[in-house]
Amino acid sequence: MTATDPALTALAQGWCALSLLHGRIEVHLERALQAKHGLSVREYSLLDVLSRQHDGVGGHLQMKQVADAVVLSQSATTRLVTRLEDRGLLARYLCPTDRRGIYTNVSESGLKLLEEARPTNDAALREALDEAAKNPELEPLVRVVESLNVPI
Questions:
Q1: By 3-state DSSP, what share of the chain in percent is helix, strand and coil, each rounded to 5?
Q2: How far apart are CA 146 and CA 44, in angstroms?
Q3: How far apart are CA 132 and CA 140, in angstroms?
Q4: Which pLDDT does position 1 carry in this prediction?
Q5: Neighbours of 72 (CB within 10 A)
Q6: Rounded to whole angstroms, how far apart are CA atoms 14 and 134?
Q7: pLDDT of residue 11
Q8: Neighbouring residues of 81: CB distance < 8 A, sequence distance ≥ 6
Q9: pLDDT for res 50
Q10: pTM for the full predicted model
Q11: What is the rounded CA–CA span in Å between residue 41 and residue 34?
Q12: Which is nearest to 79 in space by CA: 68, 95, 63?
């Protein structure tokens, strides 16, 4: 394949459109969450992921699993956890069965903030998708996102 291969060009254009849609959504969410709740998109995502944990086998996520879920490196995830812990939104504790393991749970104040921020996030996401759907290049991607029913 050459750099001017039509298949590569179409693939690159599709990737650019997907990247553009993601960027627009993320900026819109960031503004809304920061303005109303003092949360970044990453902070909101981390609180959301950790709030879905449960007690029992496989209920708590390892830091690598958390990092994968919020699409950050493990070191960036650890820094993010520390920032939220410093704000009293998270708490860490040792795994009762493996002293090497550390779990992170959302605190009561973190759950309250998440509950308050969730409608803001949902409304901002809807607004961003509606706005992106007006762009003919992004509209098909928006429809695909809207049709997905993927458990998170």
A1: 65, 5, 30
A2: 21
A3: 10
A4: 53
A5: 17
A6: 17
A7: 87
A8: 46, 63, 66, 90, 92, 104
A9: 93
A10: 0.86
A11: 8
A12: 63
Residue with tokens 């879920």: 69
Q: Give the DSSP letter string of 20-88.
A: HHHHHHHHHHHHHHHHHHS--HHHHHHHHHHHT--SSTT-SPPHHHHHHHHT--HHHHHHHHHHHHHTT
Structure tokens at 99: 């002293």
Residue 32 burial (CB count, 10 A): 21
Rg (CA), the chain: 18
**10-residue averages of pLDDT along the chain (152 residues):** 69 92 97 98 96 76 87 93 96 78 89 98 97 95 90 62
Q: How far apart are CA 93 and CA 3, in angstroms?
A: 52
Burial of 98 (C-beta count, 10 Å sphere; 0-12/13-18/19+): exposed
pLDDT of residue 49: 93
Tokens linked to 147: 């049709």
